[in-house]
Amino acid sequence: MKKEFAVIGLGRFGGSICNELAEQGMQVMAIDINEERVNKFAAVASHAVCADTTDEKVLKSLGIRNFDHVIVAIGDDIQASILTTLMLKELGVKKVSAKAQNDYHEKVLRKIGADHVVHPERDMGKRIAHNMVSNNVLDYLELSDEHSIAEVVASEKLGGNSIIDLNIRARHGINIVAIKRGNDILVSPQADELIRAGDILIVIGADSDINRFERKAL
Ligand code: ATP
Ligand code: ATP
Ligand code: CA
Q1: Parent domain of 152
Q2: By CB atoms within 10 Å of each CB, which of 17, 49, 78, 141 scores lowest?
Q3: Hey, whose CA ends up nearest to atom 28 of ligand 1?
Q4: What is the SS3 assignment for 102?
Q5: Can you tell me the ipTM of this complex?
Q6: What positions does the domain RCK N-terminal occupy (predicted)?
């Protein structure tokens, strides 16, 4: 069965989620208090509804409990975001993701039971800064405060060596989960796989170990 999503708040962030879910063929209900915004999504979403989600009766009448995943993308009105999230959890919605506007907002959202909190401006800023600092790092995904997955380009220095020759796990404490080579991707490469200069290594590990690997090995 296909998952059913609801997106509350159709600003840039919520609107973009809505478009992408629809693009991926998902069922998505688009909700906003602002009628103009709702109209913009009438053609994209399975349903587009004008409603104030801080009103419990309204949430119930939308049958919000039956959705698999609800995204609260209300930003500026922090009070509305918190109230909506709280009621969604009280009504028994299994999975609620919420957008935080600042660290305090994030803390409150977690306390009241949001299953997933995103902080797009901060997280994207971090990610872009990280990519700017190192020439070898193409992309980077934060798993926790201390762990990430990074895409790094293999240097001439690494080229011609096998994973086992380089002893990457023991020496650097990181794992190569995949190698991108042209249009091919080798998932879970064997230890005897020869790395070529220009390969894109997808590595997982502690940030400190990944940073050291970037500086020492690449
Ligand atoms: P973004 O930063 O994603 O571009 P934005 O800055 O345009 O968003 P926000 O104030 O963050 O707007 O709110 C996103 C949307 O949430 C707005 O379209 C707003 O109308 C809607 N919204 C605000 N309060 C409620 C509410 N109580 N019920 C439903 N929708 C709401
Ligand atoms: P964000 O969406 O990243 O949280 P914001 O919504 O707080 O940003 P923006 O209007 O996007 O604010 O502007 C970001 C910052 O750029 C603000 O601190 C603002 O003072 C500054 N800024 C805006 N215009 C100029 C300008 N012409 N020259 C210098 N700084 C500017
Ligand atoms: Ca905003």
Answers
A1: 122-216
A2: 141
A3: 52
A4: coil
A5: 0.70
A6: 2-118
Please tell me what DSSP assigns to residue 115.
Answer: S
Q: Is the CB of 76 under 6 A from ligand 1?
A: yes
Phi, psi (5° rounding) for residue 88? -60, -45
- Integer Cα distance of 79 and 59 in angstroms: 16
- Kindly tell me if the per-residue pLDDT of 129 is higher than 90: no
Strand partners, 21: none
What integer pLDDT is reported at residue 214 of this predicted model? Answer: 84
Q: Give the chain's domain count.
A: 2
CB-CB contact of 42 with 36 (8 Å): no
Q: Which of 52, 108, 58, 49 is nearest to 78 (CA)?
A: 108
Exposed, middle or buried by CB within 10 Å (0-12, 13-18, 19+), for 187? exposed
What DSSP designation does 117 have?
A: E
Q: Which ligand 1 atom is the nearest neighbour of the CA of 54?
A: 27
Ligand 1 contact, 109 CB (< 6 A): no
The reply to whether 186 and 212 lie within a common domain is yes
